[in-house]
Design goal:
Largest sheet: none
Number of strands: 0
Shape: globular
Number of helices: 8
Distance between the termini: 20 Å
Structural class: mainly alpha
């Protein structure tokens, strides 16, 4: 069961992803990207807690991803939106790349998304990403 803070955090994380997508669709609008970044950060902190977030991003092997992710956010806030978003995406992939196989395996079990992921041209790519070494 989720606590109230975790529910708010999940909403803010989704809100941040939505505003980031809208910011890209609106030709890299600095304001929308900034709102998306900040609400994503606050949402993640509320979902997993401040201590766990600190332990997650300060790990030695994730330091490059952390620096790129937060550096990209700062670049977006200072007005260099395209460069900042590119650096931020690189950092995001380095930070959260380990979760992609687990997320794809979960999405395969969803009704509509699972059907799309099982299409002939998409399925081999998903199989390569997911692999057989899932922790669950």
């Amino acid at each position: 069961m989720l606590s109230d803070n975790q529910k708010i955090g999940a909403f803010l994380t989704a809100f941040g992803a939505l505003f980031t997508i809208l910011g890209v669709m609106m030709f890299f609008d600095r304001g929308l990207l900034a709102i998306g970044n900040l609400s994503f950060l606050v949402g993640v902190n509320l979902v997993i807690g401040i201590r766990k977030t600190q332990r997650f991003v300060i790990q030695r092997h994730k330091l490059k991803g952390t620096i790129c992710f937060f550096g990209g956010i700062l670049l977006v806030l200072f007005g260099y939106t395209i460069v900042g978003l590119a650096v931020e995406v690189f950092g995001f992939v380095n930070l959260f790349g380990n979760f992609f196989p687990l997320a794809l395996a979960f999405m395969r079990r969803m009704p509509v998304v699972g059907t799309v992921l099982s299409w002939p041209y998409i399925s081999p790519l998903v199989d390569r990403i997911v692999g057989n070494d899932l922790p669950v």
